[in-house]
Amino acid sequence: MKKLIIISVLLFGYFIQAQEVAGTTDLEELDVRKNNTEIYNAVEKPAYFPTGINDFRQKFARNFKEKNVISNGIEKCELTFVIERDGTLTDIKASGTNQSFNKEAIRAVSKIKTKWIPAELDGHKVRYRFRVPLTINFK
């Protein structure tokens, strides 16, 4: 009978300890997801402009001032920005050979105040990197 009581107490202690560790691990995992600052390039549900990508392009075109770009030919750049969990744009960058074109592309996107619908991964809103290739003929 003594052996049975000792085994029961040990097993009971083991199960209590196992549950406590599992609960703590789950809480830490949720906390990491909540404070995650990682920027994702691939997600289950990508970020999108609420009125559609064509509306975003039209707003960009309206904000873009060709007179601010010094060029007589075809210019290309890649515009990248991060769509935050609240739908705002941050870390706006343009990479291309013409600096005036890059600066104007950044300015034009920065003027768009409509918030995006954020990306989602595992049901959580996450930061998402968005890329827009630009090619404009200035002739």
Automatic annotation (TrEMBL):
Gene3D superfamilies: 3.30.1150.10. InterPro entries: TonB_C. Keywords: Signal. The keyword Signal applies. GO terms for biological process: transmembrane transport. Pfam families: TonB_C. Residues 1-18 form the signal peptide. Residues 76-134 form the TonB C-terminal domain. This is Gram-negative bacterial tonB protein. It comes from Chryseobacterium indoltheticum.
